Amino acid sequence: MLARLSKKLPPLKGATIFWQIISVALVVIGVTLGIFSAVRTGSILVAAGGALYAYVSYTTSLTKRTIELLIPIGVTLLLFVVSLTLPHAK
């Protein structure tokens, strides 16, 4: 069963893993900044990391359903807009 599953999964190349690590790092840094005072900057970093992770996941998936890209990108764009409209954010 596991052998059958591994044949269906696309191979992750070095660049893909690199961009996934970068996107997770952006999210972690954004959450940390948001916790400790820089809410606007943290929110922007979380939005950028989430969008990057969604794009990398979409490009490496075997099935290309557009909704799997549009919904995460839409959520991250809304988070970006909310971060820009925050009043008195430091």
SSE topology string? HHHH
CA gyration radius, whole angstroms = 16 Å
Q: Indicate the structural class.
A: mainly alpha
Unreliable stretches (pLDDT < 50, length at least 5) are none
The outline comes out as flat
Count the E strands.
Answer: 0
Q: Kindly give the count of domains.
A: 1
Q: What quaternary form is this?
A: single chain
**Helix amount:** over 70%
Number of helices: 4
Strand coverage percent:
under 5%
Distance between the termini: 52 Å
Question: What is the mean predicted local confidence, pLDDT?
Answer: 82
Describe the sheet with the most strands: none
Please outline what is shown here.
The protein is mainly alpha-helical. 78% of the residues lie in helices and 0% in strands. It has helices at 2-8, 14-36, 39-60, 67-84.
Task: Provide structural commentary.
There is one protein chain. The chain is mainly alpha-helical and 90 residues long. It has one domain (13-83). It is 78% helix and 0% strand. It is built from four helices and no strands. The radius of gyration is 16 Å and the shape is flat. The termini are far apart. The mean pLDDT is 82.
